[in-house]
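TICKET #2291
ISSUE: user wants both folds in one file
ATTACHMENT 1:
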Amino acid sequence: MSDFIQEITGYTSLDMIIKLLIRIVIACICGAAVGTERSKRLKEAGVRTHCIVACAAAVFMILSKYSFADLAVSTGFFAGDRGADPARIAAQVVSGLGFLGAGVIFKNGGSIKGLTTAAGLWATAAIGMAIGSGMLLIGIFTTIVVVILQVLTHRFTIGSDSYVTSRLHIVAKNSEEFKDWLMAQLKNDIQVTDSSITKNDNDTITYRLTIRARKNFGFTDLIKMLEERADIISISLNAE
């Protein structure tokens, strides 16, 4: 049975496979630590992106070092062939996925979209390479890890992963009291990345703000603002 496991996993021992799985877990933990720090600083690439990139990088490194171990044995398709270079295609997959990932990343106003998707594509390529090279347990385990990371980090957001960029448009009566109230509201876990203020002829003032706020900032918050402030004439919020 042990010989069969070694054969289908590229002549890698079960003990070695367990060690490699532990390396993937440690890489994810390190990626989460880096992502948490970046997330607290409101950077676009947060916990999810760093976890997936670290996980994929660990798998790529494992592939580079161990996935061609079966070429060194005396039996098999490449037995005794020292001129083969099986790592060349794998290296091109790693670099080629960078262009594919760049295709799903786009800038919308003050925010960048698609980073997690690009990292997911990179991780998926690593999983495919692992399974294709015969490292089935590594590929399956990495698939489970990436899926769990995506589900948990979308459900339980951390730091700036829980923030979305929106455009807030407010028309209100021009008064110092309202200005002070609005400034107080914008200090509650809201980051203003772009602003434009226009004083109108009818003694009203228009605020056009690009903000980063938590996902629960939406329609109910707008209703609450209208109920609290009679001097607000109109208010709108458009998510980017």
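ATTACHMENT 2:
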Amino acid sequence: EPMPPRRLFGEDEKEAAVRLFDEAIRTGGVFGYNGPEEEAFEGEFADALGGGFADGVNSGTSAVFTALGALQLPGGSEVVVPPITDPGGAMPVVVLNCVPVFADCDPRSYNIGAEQIEAVLTERTRAIIVAHIAGEPADMGPIMELARGRGLPVIEDCAQAHGARYDGRPVGTFGELSAFSTMSGKHMATAAQGGVVFTRDEELHWRQKRFADRGKPFNLPDAGSNVVPGLNLNLNELAAAVGRVQLRKLPEIVRGRRAVGEGVKAGVADLEAVSVGWHPPQAECSYWFLRMTLEPDHLTVGKDEFAAALAAEGIPVNPSYRHIQAESNWVRTRRSGWCPWLFGEIEPDPPPMPNAVAVCERAFNIGVHEGYGEQEIREIVAALRKVEAAYRKK
């Protein structure tokens, strides 16, 4: 039988949307943005992270963009970015007239590491972006120690890591700011698209909120007019109403995904050739997907053949997650005419990414979600054991 569908949205989300429309129809008004639903959603989101300030925006990319905008970095500043990430986790640096500097990843993970960050720091470095890919927390202890020692602000990209924890704390609470995606493929969603910026620094919150809404003078009663250039990146009342329902479901969603990940990990712990990927011992993953690692010396086939065999067993497999942005056309060709790379001496070529390449060549991903139960865990484990047995060197 096929794996069960996710069924992210249900009657609760539908009722929240219908209530909003019913109220608009009853009053003859409209629902927009920055209204009671969005205000409530932002407060509840911040409370879920232990308190602070949250602002809803229209995508995870916009969340990274506005978090960077709050730092008000001078043009030409270098910003360290993750090696393996969605383009939206790095492109905002260029759009803000700064230079993305790609650091390699920890050789055991898709995630950036402190040693690799330190290797690319220069006198022009002004900030660091850390992404928690696949719901696996980056090793934040050494990263934050390095950043604090150099006086560099950190932005956490938590687009794939709602509910993940490091050393007992939620990811997103370590850096100066954090960015979350709430598009429909993530742990929780504000309908089709959305994002949230979180910080515990009130001044950064207001700077970010102004930047996300065309420089409106929020919390500046005497400003008189818009105070900084910015874009209209607002969330909206309909998205927030759905997001509030989803936020209430998030703890159970994370528990379900963690149970699947840990169940599969335990089920293959004795295998020689395949395992659930390493993460820091302080980490509690929320598993947006399972990053599986192969030991090719133990197999008679390569990764693609191994993944194809798993897919033939009915397991949802992505054989490659080579989202190494330094290899992308937008980085290699630098086609944007206003791109800061074109400003005289600031023309760095991305350094080699040997760790990221090696990790991607040994890893494949298994799609999972919180709707999987004991049966699906058993099926994934059985398929992994079967395929390893078939291709293991004798």
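RESOLUTION: both attachments delivered.
EXTRA DETAIL ON ATTACHMENT 2: The chain is about 35% helix and 15% strand.
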